[in-house]
Prior knowledge:
The chain contains two helices and six strands. The chain has a single domain, classed as Thrombin, subunit H (Beta Barrel). By secondary structure, the chain is an alpha+beta fold. Strand 5 and strand 6 form a beta hairpin.
Amino acid sequence: MGEISERRRFPRYTCTGAVEILQQGHHCGAGIVTDISWLGCYIETVYPLTVGTLAKIRLNLLGISLDIDAMTVSVTPMFGMGMEFTAGSGAQESTFKQIIAAVSGEEASPAIPRAEDPQPQQRAF
């Protein structure tokens, strides 16, 4: 597990929050967010989407709500899925900063990585 942690560019923060999963504007699932980072989150759900599936996820963490586009990047059958954020606007970035600050316990969020940062993953913001 240490090897995986060393590859991560941004820390994951343990959290608990509700998530609704939408495709083409329709509810297609729900779950619990158990960790979140600047690049994505893990959702516990008995009906995970298949890897590569695009969806909009509606996060609700600590009373803060955010709708954001994401793609399934890992699946544990009957348990959950890893989602990578794929798009974001300025308003979403502001809300996302609030979420990260709330779950990390930090008052000021770290600098948000930009698309020009060398990294294999996509950037949400």
